[in-house]
Amino acid sequence: MRRGPKNKFQPRQVEDEHRINTRIRAIKVRLVGDGVEPQVLSTREAIELAEQQDLDLVEISPNADPPVCKIMDYKKFLYNQKKKQKELKAKQSKIVIKEIRFGPNTDDHDFNFKLANAKKFLEEGNKVKAFVFFRGRTIVYKDRGEILLLKFAQELSEIGTLEQMPKLEGKRMTIMVNPKKGK
Fold first, then answer.
1. Which of 27, 63, 117, 156 gives the lowest tally of CB atoms within 10 Å of its CB?
2. Is residue 163 a contact partner of residue 176, using CB atoms and an 8 Å limit?
3. What integer pLDDT is reported at residue 109 of this predicted model?
4. pLDDT tens for residues 1-22?
């Protein structure tokens, strides 16, 4: 016979990140907050003070001795925390690297087409990684690949800055171009 919980569909108890009111386990707490002088009280007295103001007693620092608690509106506190996290997330910018691939014998039309795409990527604020891929015996044309990448970087110098000079890694010669900050 299988042993386990009687009702396996019972939801789990998720503990909040802060203990509030009767969930505070300490006997004495250090009370801080707006309009309250910092003092050490029994937990029961602190909860009574919070109830008189129609607010909650929230454990801010549970590891302190005695734990630090604050009288505040807990729901409003959680709402403001979520709002701050959302604002921080919106301010973060994700760096996207767009790759452009050339061959050592790329013609002018293909070069100009890829150059136009690279300009568009840089104007959007993305980094551009351009590389020449050498297949088979085309590795003997390393100088052509380097000239092509330097020409590419020269064309993009108005809207982007070269992060690294052409570097050969295996069968690839690579450069990185960052968007200029002023744009």
1. 63
2. yes
3. 93
4. 555 555 555 555 545 577 888 8
Domain range list for the chain? 21-79, 97-179
Query: Considering the entire predicted model, what is its pTM?
Result: 0.51
C-alpha–C-alpha distance, residues 16 and 53, integer Å: 23
Q: Specify the DSSP element, H or E, that contains 45.
A: helix 43-52
Task: Give the pairing of strands 56-61 and 39-42.
Answer: unpaired
| Predicted pLDDT of residue 182 | 61
Burial level of 58, CB count in 10 A (0-12/13-18/19+)? buried
* Among 148, 182, 152, 146, CA closest to 166: 146
**Tens-digit pLDDT profile for residues 112-169:** 999 999 999 999 888 999 999 988 888 888 888 999 999 999 999 899 999 888 888 8
Place of tokens 């690297």: 97
Q: How far apart are CA 183 and CA 177, in angstroms?
A: 14
- List CB contacts of 122: < 8 A, sequence separation 6 or more: 128, 156, 159, 160, 177, 179, 180, 183
CATH of domain 97-179: 3.30.110.10
Q: Tell me phi and psi for residue 5, to 5 degrees.
A: -65, 145
**Fold for domain 21-79?**
Ubiquitin-like (UB roll) (3.10.20)
Token digits of residue 17: 């990140």
Stated length of the chain: 183
